[in-house]
Amino acid sequence: MATNSLLKQYSDERAALVQNAVSKAAAIVLGRRRVLSGIRWRDDLIVTAAEAIGGAERVDIRLDADDLEAQVIATDLTTDIALLRVNSNPANTTANATSGTPRPAPSLLRVGETIAVVGRTLRGPTAIWGTIQLAGPAWSSRRGGKIDQRIELDVGFDPSFEGAAVIDTSGNIVAMAVPGPYHRVLGIPTATIETVVAKVDQFGHLPKPYIGIRLQPLWLDDETRSRLGRKTRTIAAVGGVDAGSPAENAHIELGDLLLTLDGHAADSVNDMARRIASATPGQTITLEVLRGGKPLTVTVQIGERPRH
Questions:
Q1: Fewer CB within 10 Å, N side or C side of the chain?
Q2: 3-state DSSP assignment of residue 122
C-alpha cells in the first residue's frame, strides 16, 4: 500500500509540473497540415523554431482555448529561434504569466537530469518525459549562431514537439526543443533565447551584423602556409569592400588576407562569416590582416546590414 502511495504521489507531482507549464504552450499552424509548438515567453511574445517558420510573416496560433493570429517579428536561423507577437492578448491567456519561468542563466543542465518536453497540438497539450543525454560547453551552430550550452535530449520526438518547452523538475523552462542532425533532439538554452529577445527589445527587430566585405578563399602552397604558421591550406582574402561600409571606414583594402579575428585564427571564409554573423551591431572587433606581406591590425565597428 505504501509503495502504491509513493507511486501515486510521484505520478501526481509529474503531472502537476506539466500542467503548470501547459499555460506557456502554444500550437502554431503552418499551412494546412503542419503544426508545431511554441513557448509563451512573456505577455504577447511567443518563441518557436525558426527553421520551421521559414519565410512566414503571419501564422495562426492556439493559446489555451483561444485561436489567435501572430506576426513573425524575427527569425534567427543561426540559433533556430523565431519570435512571434500575438495580435491580441485576451485576459484568460495572461493567467499564470510567471509560471514556468526560465531558469537563471548561470545554471547549466547536467547529464542524466530529468526533463519534460511540453508542447501543444490542435487536439490539446502534449508532453513527454526524458533525460539530458549530453550537456556540453557553449558551441557555434553551422550557421554561426552562438549557443550557450550544447544540450541533447533523450526523448521520443515528433514534429509537433518542434519549438516546445523543455522543463526541469522544478518546473522551470530551461530550453526549447528542436530537431538536430542525425536524428538528435537538441535543446536551445533559455540564455540563448533571452539574448535574441534582448536584441529585438533593443532594436525593434533582429539586426543582421555587417561589415561590408566580400571574402574568397585563397589557396596557399606548403611554403607559404608554413611561413604564416597556418594549419589550413586556404586563407580568407578580401575580394570586395562595400562603399560606405564599416570595412571601408576602417580602411580594409581589396586583397587583404585575414589572419585573425579578436586574436583567434581566421581558418576559412566560412569560419569568418560565422563569427561575424554571431556579433552584435555596435560591437568592435579587431582584425589582423596581411597587406603587401606585412601584418596590420585593423579595428572595425560592426554595423547593421542595410534593410531594403
A1: C
A2: coil
